[in-house]
Amino acid sequence: MTSIHSVTFEVPDPTAADDFYATAFGVGAHVLTRASQAPTTGFRGYLMSLVVSQPSTVDSLFGTALRGGATTLKAPTKSFWGYGGVLRDPYGTIWKIASSSKKDTGPATRNIDDIVLLLGVEDVAVTKRFYVERGLSVTKSFGRKYVEFATAPVRLALYSRRAAAKDAGVPVDGTGSHRLIIDTDAGALTDPDGFTWEAASRSVR
Q1: pLDDT profile of the chain (205 residues), mean per 10
Q2: What long-range pairs does 144-153 form, CB within 8 A, spacing at least 24?
Q3: Quick count: other Cβ atoms within 10 Å of Cβ 102?
């Protein structure tokens, strides 16, 4: 199995960003930061998804993020698939926080069950082939709509850029840097949509 140890966000102030991610989500070593002023506008082409067990966890994580300066894109609500919402953090990254459960089944916690990096790509089939040719194993695939790979501890998934923007509740347009580095043992590469992978040790400040 290919390891995605963490993701690194490029931000103007890494110290402040580290404090935000620790307080808001408690994602620890899975989310790193490094300094960058690279130009970026609009949708950066990806979402971070936090999968949790019940609605109270969604609300808790959402609440601490908002108190830390995040803004709501989609308020947490029930839907046919469960309960969740979407926000943008103070450094521009979009987070989807969701549970497949529509009601609480136990005491409130802040436990995160799964961290998923959702890349919005121009052509799902092309990007899927790119990753498969580099040794990633597919665990789920729905034609040109959605692909999931066997990566850990951060799981990688693909869907179209337009679908990703719709999921996030933002316009699809965006230019400049993704402000994202994928930290992995798979070796350095840049995929067809410009997402950059680096050896994990290079991204740790």
Answers
A1: 92 97 94 96 98 97 98 96 97 98 93 97 97 95 94 97 97 97 90 94 45
A2: 149/2, 150/1, 150/2, 151/1, 151/2, 151/3, 151/4, 151/184, 152/1, 152/3, 152/4, 153/3, 153/4, 153/5, 153/30, 153/115
A3: 13
* Residue 3 vs residues 16, 19, 49, 123, 167: alpha-carbon distances, Å: 27, 25, 17, 24, 26
Give the Cα separation of 136 and 128 in Å (integer).
9
Q: Which amino acid is at 57?
A: T
Q: What is the DSSP string of 25-57?
A: T--GGGEEEEE----EEE--SEEEEEEESSHHH
Give the span between the Cα atoms of 50 and 25, in whole angstroms: 9
pTM of the model: 0.95
Residue-level length of the chain: 205
What CA dihedral angle connects 193, 129, 114 and 32, to 10 degrees?
Answer: -40
